[in-house]
Amino acid sequence: MFFFKAITGLPILAALLTTGLGHPVNVEIDSRSLKSSPFNPSIPVPGVEPPKLPSNLTASTIDGNELRARGTVYRPTVGYFAGFNVGAYTSTGACKSLQDWRNELKQVKAYKSSHFQFTVVKIFTTSQCSALKNALQAAKEVGGIKVWAGLWATPISTFNSDKNELGRQILGSNGNLILGVSVGSEELFRGSLSSSQLAGYIWDVKGMIQNSYGKTKVPVGTSEGIAPLLDSANQQVLDACDAVMLTSYPYYGGSRIDLALKAFQQGWWALGAKMAGKSLIVGETGWPSKGKTIGQAVPTVPNAKQYFKAIACWMRATKKPFFWFSAVDEQWKSGGVAETRFGVSWATGAKKYPLSC
């Protein structure tokens, strides 16, 4: 029998129990030993200086940015879209070239069906591998795709490089293709930042791009699991965000595939009740096509197809924005076979199943 517990010490939430599931809905097994990071620490992160500002803008300190954000708070929102999480690395873990980015975004665009048009990609770092610069250039050339820029938040030197690179690119010729910004990825889940640190980083980035640079229509938030976001001790993170990107994997919760939609929905509704009008986006969800069985969650191609049809089609029908995880299998990852098999297509580019309802 599997032992289920809440992430980061959050007590099991009785309100999230679903009859017949036999485990907490969307409160995952402590999967830190199973999940691997979307960030490859073996690749150096370049030191990036702040951008040279146009004459109508003035540089400011981190504290100044935070104060401006708290003083004049912009709350941009987003409507429905369908998109994919896209990594910065090749199948071997090396940096993608600009041509690799072109090829992958062409592939994402070609996933279009009668039910879905995938128009946004979310990345996890801006400076490492020139990820944001290359993603934006490829998006411009391919057309019809925007980028949700993710900033890797630890250590502080990487956060500063990613933040400065974001500043350079959002003020650049392709800056209009940045749809939104995510500060950190599952920082509370991994325990890499405290809630006050993460909230401060979010205010900092909001202050930079919205208050200092005038990009008031670009939402800033974070990507995080359901349990930390429902923990009242982390309310300051929700307060800082314009948009919250929910990371939800019923597979890691041991859910049976036919009950996975119910598990997913209960987490969504519980968090939605705390959003106070802010945008709630699925930042990551998916089902692996191969790997370890967890509880009653079996990773197979048919189950991955069933999960996509259940979740993505519900999101489409109810006009909820989402990023699927992921566009292509990521074979460079560690953490178990399942972590390398979340793509809707194989590493060769061939789709595993139709992306339709």
UniProtKB/TrEMBL annotation:
Q: Which GO terms describe its molecular function?
A: glucan endo-1,3-beta-D-glucosidase activity
Keyword annotations = Carbohydrate metabolism, Cell membrane, Cell wall, Cell wall biogenesis/degradation, Glycoprotein, Hydrolase, Membrane, Polysaccharide degradation, Secreted, Signal
Q: What is its main location?
A: membrane
Cellular component, GO annotation? cell surface; extracellular region; fungal-type cell wall; plasma membrane
Q: Which Gene3D superfamilies match?
A: Glycosidases
Please report the record's description of how this protein sits within the membrane.
Single-pass type II membrane protein
The residue range of the signal peptide is 1-22
The organism's superkingdom is given as Eukaryota
Q: Which reaction does it catalyse?
A: Hydrolysis of (1->3)-beta-D-glucosidic linkages in (1->3)-beta-D-glucans
A Pfam family this chain is assigned to: Glyco_hydro_17
E.C. designation(s): 3.2.1.39
By its UniProt entry, which InterPro entries does this protein fall under? Answer: Beta-glucan_modifiers, GH, Glyco_hydro_17
PANTHER family listed in its UniProt record: GLUCAN 1,3-BETA-GLUCOSIDASE (PTHR16631), GLUCAN ENDO-1,3-BETA-GLUCOSIDASE BTGC (PTHR16631:SF17)
The entry sums up its family as follows: Belongs to the glycosyl hydrolase 17 family.
Protein task: Glucanases play a role in cell expansion during growth, in cell-cell fusion during mating, and in spore release during sporulation. This enzyme may be involved in beta-glucan degradation. Active on laminarin and lichenan.
**By what name is this protein known?**
glucan endo-1,3-beta-D-glucosidase
